[in-house]
Write a structure and sequence with these properties.
two-stranded parallel ribbon; 16 helices
């Protein structure tokens, strides 16, 4: 049995999603205020603000709590998500002038909200994490994006979201290159302690490279010896390491390695990752193969890995 898990197996995120759908800011504030880990806070907000409708009621919450960094952060994060909804995930040549206008307009609002949140909560990495997303959308350039990434990791060195955003910033489709992307992923993992959540960056980088080549499931790239070796080394330093524990990003990491190992022909490693997911499917990375029904490629790849 496989099913999409918007809450990614996380009870707090499930409660946040329910509160967001009910436009219940006090309930959201209570949940988020109980989170001490800034990496977890950013992860929760990034996922919870995918719910449509914040833009209708969150401005009132900010108006009522003008000195709340948390309210500003959530409002700004939603503006970023709402902006990308307007742009869609299509390549720039397929996005209309009107879509770009709305996209940039919403990102400008997000920038103001997030900078205000950063001023009120100078120790938080999360505002800078979301500012990385707005910087890429507004095409502020590699230097500004790098400065925002550095601002995030100064405050929280193993902030997975910040690292994922910087990896996107330096990948080929956003003006970087495959070499720069892989170098960033490798350096991030080398610089982190064993058992770090950052190990998934290596798998994401290889999937991005594979997609940029031809996007077919039988690409020779993922089966190259050096790629396979890097995937195993990254898995050993992350979710297969005893120190890894149960981070909030665990399910997404397992899904990512399940796909990467299946494409690499590493059936045993892929099957183990699939088993560890418990049949819970995350949108990423499966939307790369089917943006409408991500459970479908999950099932297909699980079968290829030898799991029914």
């Amino acid at each position: 049995m496989a099913r999409l898990s918007p809450a990614q197996g996380n009870p707090r995120l499930a409660r946040l999603l329910a509160a967001a759908k009910a436009a219940d800011w006090p309930a959201m504030r209570e949940e988020l205020s109980a989170v001490a880990d800034d990496g977890e806070r950013g992860w929760l907000i990034a996922n919870a603000t995918e719910v449509a409708g914040y833009e209708q009621w969150m401005p009132k919450a900010v108006e009522n709590e003008p000195d709340s960094g948390l309210a500003l952060l959530v409002a700004g994060a939603r503006q970023v998500a709402w902006a990308w909804e307007a742009r869609t995930g299509l390549r720039a040549k397929h996005v209309s002038r009107e879509q770009f206008r709305i996209f940039h307009e919403r990102l400008e609002v997000a920038e103001d909200l997030l900078y205000r949140a950063a001023e009120l909560e100078p120790g938080w990495a999360s505002p800078w994490y979301f500012l990385q997303m707005s910087a890429r959308g507004l095409q502020l350039g590699q230097d500004i994006s790098r400065l925002r990434f550095e601002a995030a990791v100064r405050r929280f060195p193993e902030h997975l979201g910040a690292h994922q955003q910087q990896l996107q910033q330096v990948c080929a489709k956003w003006g970087g290159s495959h070499d720069e992307m892989h170098a960033f992923a490798r350096a991030s993992v080398r610089g982190a302690p064993e058992g770090s959540v950052l190990g998934v960056l290596v798998a994401v980088a290889h999937l991005e490279h594979w997609l940029d080549l031809d996007g077919t499931t039988d690409s020779a790239y993922m089966r190259r010896g050096d790629v396979v070796a890097e995937l195993h080394a990254a898995a050993d330093r992350s979710y297969r390491h005893p120190a890894y524990g149960e981070p909030v990003s665990r399910l997404g990491t397992l899904n990512t390695f399940a796909l990467a190992f299946t494409l690499a022909g590493e059936k045993k490693a892929a099957a183990a990752a699939f088993t560890a997911t418990g049949g819970l499917v995350t949108e990423f990375p499966w939307q790369y193969l089917d943006g409408d029904v991500p459970v479908s490629p999950y099932r297909t790849m699980r079968f290829r890995a030898g799991r029914p």
